[in-house]
Amino acid sequence: MRTHQGPREPGSFPVPPAGRGSTNQTLALAAMLFAVSMTFIDQTIVSIAAPSIIDELGLSSSGMQWVVNAYLLALAAFFALGGRLSDIMGHRRMMLIGTLVFVVSSVLCGCVPTGDLAQTWLIVFRATQGLGAALMFPAALAVVVSVFPVEKRGRALALFFGLSGALTAVGPLLGGWLTNWTWRAIFWVNVPVAVVALVLAAMAHIPEVRRREKLDVPGALLVAVGMGLSVLGFQQASAWGWSSVATWACVVGGLAVLAVFCRYELGVAEPLIRLRVFRDRAFAADSLVLFFSMMAFVPVFFFASVYAQVSLSASPNQAALYLLYFFVGFGIASQWGGRILDRRGARPAMKLGTALGAVGFALWAHKLTDLSMHDQWPYAALAGAGIGFLLAPASTDAVNRSIGASYGEVTGITQTVRNYAASIGIAVFGTVLTHVTTDRVVETLTSKGVPSGPAHDAARSVAEAVTGNADAQQPSGDGRVATLMRDSMDAVRMDFAEANQWVFYGMAIALGVAFLCSLWHPGTRVTGDPHTAGGPDPETTADSDPGRRDELHGG
Question: Are 148 and 204 in contact (CB under 8 A)?
Fold first, then answer.
């Protein structure tokens, strides 16, 4: 395997080791973990509290869907901007700003008034929560990367991604427990977590690293509009339908704006995203592996949880425990993946992870129709292990190859890729689940003597109710249909399990494509922290470590 040393090509220069001697690496890592934990938990915690929020505030089901999606939309739209601001203004500073925006928005979400203003209030401050997360996460990841030398970075980021990813499973458990008190607590719980993160960050003495560059405002607007529109189209596809003009207007319009963004960036002296980083074959391979892997990793939270509650008749808390099988494998393998990265590079870890993930998801899909939670745990754990092996190595290797040590920028790119892939996975697999569930339930009801028309209406209602589509209608008609529906619930649970098989096999295919992408990785490694040649020099400010600037620049 060829070793990657010294300046040789764009995209291979980690940040200079500014301030590592005075920075408490353990406290810095802990602070960043507490900060990003809020963003992961909030991706799932609101869904559990949705019925209570709807009941108290009188929201429509479509309004509640916008409350959930507003966070994800803002997250996707502003990640690239957050990464670039982190480079220009400083990683530590942007982490603090993002955390404050996030926690203030959380408090305001929990203080939503009842009445006509409630829905707008929640949607607006959920969006600002997403903005805070988009500002915070790239900066937090860049802090971890900058304070750990490259030879220790794999293990540090394996812990970072392993623990923060596992916290997504905490959302449903925590949400169920807090909702028993008040659903508003699911937002207020972020306050003590943020306080701990800020205190630890202050104690860690994290150096401030920033770059003397201008912000590409037109580029920021173009990427925000392009990402926001296309993600909106994918997210709303299940509600609007894939044949809807609105769906394709958003998707195609968003992609067109992103194409304009790419063309614009190539002609700008100081672009928001240096697209030449994709000329690095290893970085491009890392990005593709992350893209196809995240089509399975993020959607599995939703689909496995709904499957457990519908087909296995599990409670929300039991469904969260069901997901723990996946995270046991994920947590253990993520640590091994970090060690493989440190010793052998990213390619072996990505090949192993994508292969295990593809096999794990395929075997898990095969066992879904057994309708036994305990029989599925080895396959769920294997699928989780596959993602655990590849996630930190692919992400770390991509960041290590950043142009001119632009860690914030590249973490913004990789996180945008991940969120974009997740939105596509949820939309596509959600459509597959809805259609297959409808077809299966129609077959079940017609076989029991229900006429075709009422059977289709009832099946569509069942599919919309269990897959979370907006404005689901209850089946109408005579009492005979309702009676047959109650009598057929065991069969419907099996129908839904069979529909989920298609989804999980789709996830296995996505991991299979990721495996092919991992083979394209050249196998080069980043083994040191050389200064960049020809790129902007990072500036270490004196406020965090007096005299460090002179030391860095030889003064």
Answer: no
